[in-house]
Design a protein that fits this description.
Shape: globular
Radius of gyration: 23 Å
Bound molecules: flavin-adenine dinucleotide
Helix content: 25-40%
CATH architecture of the largest domain: 3-Layer(bba) Sandwich
CATH class of the largest domain: Alpha Beta
Distance between the termini: 37 Å
Low-confidence stretches: none
Strand content: 15-25%
Length: 493
């Protein structure tokens, strides 16, 4: 590896990643901190992150684009969007705001070291095309690297996988030339990815079976927003439509989230009733679509136009609820003794969590073990100066938190400038020091597999709202703008 640089290149702010978070960060910096120099370094060759990475058939959002889209750029299409439509939207945001000049693609950051002597981060990055090593310095590090490892999805290690004569595919690394026409496909998993993939391939393959260990909640509904459509009929300006539709969606989602805590059985009945209506009275909804857990402990996928249920009702797709005993030459032997024959097995089994982009962090020469830090509101970490991580919401669109945190970072940067401050590190206050330290997320609140598998690697949370990522947009939309920057939590120098 070689470097042609004589000096590291310096920026006031360095953004890691150009997904929905990094592009949002870039936009808000230009608007709210126009005097700051900044760069976004992105490992991939283009923007979009998740939407650039995933190419499996049918890839689409599972939440609406009125709230997954940014507050500043109206979404004008149907609420659920394809991956390609999201990329087009993001491309327009970049072009319309001339953000391209701030983004450098093909730059993978490997290390980040803070020096308190200079009040600077030094980052090492590799140009993915040439292997060249580059150094950057920055006063503030804005981590927009997402939450999962992009190179490889999570596939459990099942016995006999090597015996299987067909092809095993993970949706995160879907081969462009995968030929599934007329083939027998088994999709393992029943999360949002499986629910997208199954109807998308059902018409083309011989048969597709969704194999799940246990059922998941879905919200079937039309891929349209009545209010937005009506406002359009009235020729209301798109900027207004965007804002009003966002408010209405968030208002309705708040009610559903409240119901999930206060009347979970009622909500469960409503969700399952909607599925039953699509599958008919003879279908065993009890076995295949009645989860044992309370709604909202995992993300609930919206199923536009009930497409997966239509595929099942038509016979092109089916659901098997069972456990895998082992893979065989021909397919999968289930614990019930039944065998599922397959030409292709798709493991829609989730992600590998990546803690802060797999970057090696050091503060003043000491390596940072994030599991020994405590998180300030799921965005900053005790003992780690001038750094913020964007980890969005799961019960609401990720982007809602991106923008709340954008406002916070910009407010913090402007405050530090006005007060001649160069360094800010969150620290436990005297009254916080005896607080019990708990894992990053309460599994009673939210418990997807990738978090459960890797919780031990993540920062700790405390038992007070200041010291946790609550996943509660409706509280944070008021709390984050209200954060007092002169609070003792923030140690400035
Ligand atoms: C199939 C799928 C569907 C989803 N649908 C929804 C949805 O409908 N609604 C919703 O709210 N959420 C959804 N999510 C969650 C989704 O990932 C987030 O909402 C959002 O896209 C994350 O954006 P991000 O920019 O934070 O991270 P990412 O999209 O993961 O982007 C991070 C970027 O950082 C780059 N990066 C990482 N490490 C480094 C490094 N060391 N150096 C340089 N660059 C680096 C990556 O290459 C990547 O481009 C979905 C996720 C998946 C996988």
């Amino acid at each position: 590896m070689s470097s042609t640089q004589s000096q590291p290149e310096h920026f006031d702010v360095l953004i890691v990643g150009a997904g929905i978070s990094g592009v949002g960060a870039a936009y808000h910096l230009t608007q709210q901190c126009p005097d700051k120099s900044f760069v976004a370094l992105e490992a991939l060759e283009s923007f979009g992150g998740t939407w650039q990475m995933h190419h499996f058939p049918g890839i689409r959002s599972d939440s609406d684009l009125y709230t997954f889209g940014y507050r500043f750029k109206p979404w004008t299409g149907p609420p659920i969007a394809t991956g390609a439509e999201i990329l087009t939207y993001m491309g327009e945001v970049i072009d319309e705001n001339d953000l391209g000049r701030h983004i450098r693609y093909g730059h993978k950051i490997t290390t980040a070291s803070w020096s308190s002597e200079e009040n600077l981060w030094t980052l090492e990055a590799i140009r993915t095309e040439t292997g060249e090593q580059l150094s950057f310095t920055a006063n503030f590090l804005w981590m927009c690297q997402g939450y999962y490892r992009h190179a490889k999805g999570y596939t459990p290690d099942w016995e006999g996988m090597e015996d299987f004569n067909g092809q095993i595919v993970h949706p995160q690394t879907w081969p462009e030339d995968l030929d599934y026409k007329g083939k027998n496909v088994v999709v393992i998993g029943s999360g949002a990815t499986a629910a997208t993939l199954v109807p998308a391939i059902a018409g083309d393959c011989g048969h597709v079976t969704m194999l799940q260990r246990s059922p998941t909640y879905f919200i079937p509904g039309l891929n349209q927003n009545e209010l937005a459509d009506q406002l359009r009929e009235l020729e209301i300006d798109e900027t207004w439509i965007h804002e009003i539709t966002r408010r209405k969606i968030l208002h309705d989602q708040a009610a559903i989230t409240r119901l999930s805590f206060e009347q979970p059985e009622f909500l469960k009945g409503e969700l399952i009733g909607a599925v039953r209506a699509l599958l008919g009275p003879d279908y065993d909804v009890e076995k295949h679509f009645t989860p044992s857990y309370r709604p909202w402990r995992q993300r609930i996928a919206f199923v536009p136009d009930g497409d997966i249920f239509k595929g099942i009702a038509s016979g092109a797709a089916s659901v098997v609820t069972d456990e895998i005993e082992r893979f065989t030459e021909k397919g999968i032997l289930l614990k019930s003794g039944e065998t599922l024959e397959a030409d292709i097995i798709v493991t829609a089994t989730g992600f590998n969590l990546s803690v802060l982009g797999d970057i090696e962090f050091a503060v003043d020469g000491a390596p940072v073990d994030f599991s020994e830090t405590v998180t300030y509101r799921g965005m900053m970490f005790t003992g780690v100066p001038n750094m913020l991580w964007v980890f969005g919401y799961f019960r609401a669109s990720w982007t809602l938190r991106v923008e709340l945190l954008c406002d916070f970072v910009c407010r913090l940067l402007n405050y530090m400038k006005e007060n001649g401050l160069e360094k800010v590190t969150p620290a436990l206050r005297e009254q916080d020091k005896d607080m019990p330290l708990l894992p990053w997320m309460d599994p009673e609140n939210f418990n997807p597999g990738y978090l459960m598998r890797s919780m031990h690697l993540l920062p700790k949370r405390g038992d007070k709202p200041d010291w946790q990522h609550s996943q509660d947009y409706w509280a944070e939309k008021n709390d984050i703008p209200d954060i007092k920057l002169d609070d003792e939590v923030f140690k400035y120098e």
